Amino acid sequence: MSAALKSYVPRPTPAGLNPSQNQPSTQPYSNQGSAAVAPDVDRDTGRVSQPVSLAPGVSPLVLKIASRLRLVSSVLAASLVGLALVSYGATVYVERQLSQANQRLNALQRSEQQLTAANELLKSYMASQAESPDVDLMPPKPQHVIFLRPAQRREQPATTSANPSGLSSPQGSRPLGY
Q1: Residue 67 covered by a domain
Q2: Does the residue 14 lie in any domain?
Q3: Over the stretch 18-72, which tens digit does the pLDDT of each residue have?
Q4: Whole-angstrom Cα distance, residue 28 to residue 44?
Q5: Domain for residue 96, yes or no?
Q6: Number of domains into which the chain is organized
Q7: Which end of the chain is more exposed for a tag (fewer CB within 10 A), N or C?
């Protein structure tokens, strides 16, 4: 059973005959259509002689160049596949992050709209409360206004931008009222 699985089964040879004459030229590494180099094995001693080219007319230099070209193209193909996988992973990651950021933005926009609506509702409620006669609200009087002295002037950089409205701000020594 184990002999059937082997690719080379030795056959008994009649005494006095050379083993290479008894068997047809079937070498264990021969491949009829291959351009590779296969070693010539001596069946009696098991020694390997010089490699024999299976593609007549092709120099060993051309075979070396073809072998190197195949190696380089294999490495290049593997690196391109790796690069494609990395770029795909990066694209999926960026899209996932963008989707999460978009969801957060939408939630913040909804929250902003709710806060704006609540603020306007409170303003409206306070205005209606201030207009009702039963509330003891009084208009502000000048004696209750707090005055602050302006802070000392800081040096401004030489490149100051002009006021967009074209109006100059009042510069005086009097305090500002709050």
Answers
A1: yes
A2: no
A3: 545 544 444 444 444 445 455 566 677 767 666 555 566 778 888 899 999 999 9
A4: 14
A5: yes
A6: 1
A7: N
The whole-angstrom separation of Cα 10 and Cα 91 is: 60
Asked whether the beta carbons of 60 and 53 are under 8 A apart, the reply is: yes
**Banded model confidence at residue 167, pLDDT cuts 50, 70, 90:** low
Check if the beta carbon of residue 81 is closer than 8 Å to that of residue 75: no
Looking at the chain, list the stretches that DSSP marks H as alpha helix, in order from N- to C-terminal side. 2-5, 19-22, 60-131
Burial letters 17-28, b for 16+ CB under 10 A, else e: eeeeeeeeeeee
What span, in angstroms and rounded, lies between the C-alpha atoms of 92 and 97?
A: 9
The label of the residue with tokens 């051309």 reads 62
- Neighbouring CB atoms inside 10 A of 58's CB total 13
**Is 16 a member of any domain?**
no
How many other CB atoms are there within 10 angstroms of residue 174's CB atom?
9
Residues forming beta bridges with residue 38, ordered by sequence position: 52
Q: What is the largest CA-CA distance in the chain?
A: 138
